[in-house]
Amino acid sequence: MPSFRRKPESRGTTVNKQPAVYILASKKNGTLYTGVTSALAKRIWEHKNNVVEGFTKRYGVHQLVWYELHETLESAIRREKQIKGRKRKWKLELIESVNANWQDLYHLLT
Question: What are 53-68's pLDDT values in tens digits?
């Protein structure tokens, strides 16, 4: 069933205009995706609504389980590369250190 929810505005809150690294999951302990963006709420909305073709659409990876805000896009990109270079076990521990129940954190952004 298609989703008709409105796309989050690009203006406004700090979370919408601040560089961020994020991890999405298909479910608890499921498939993970790590990304970086300068507009977190907008980007997560795009993942959830399958706006862009690719990994998250193909594997149903839509649940925001972890994110970290950064001062600059450069530092966010460095952190994304660091996370992507780590083993899955480390990523699971990172998620569970702040989100033990694997709740979808998207509602915190909107």
Answer: 999 999 999 999 999 9
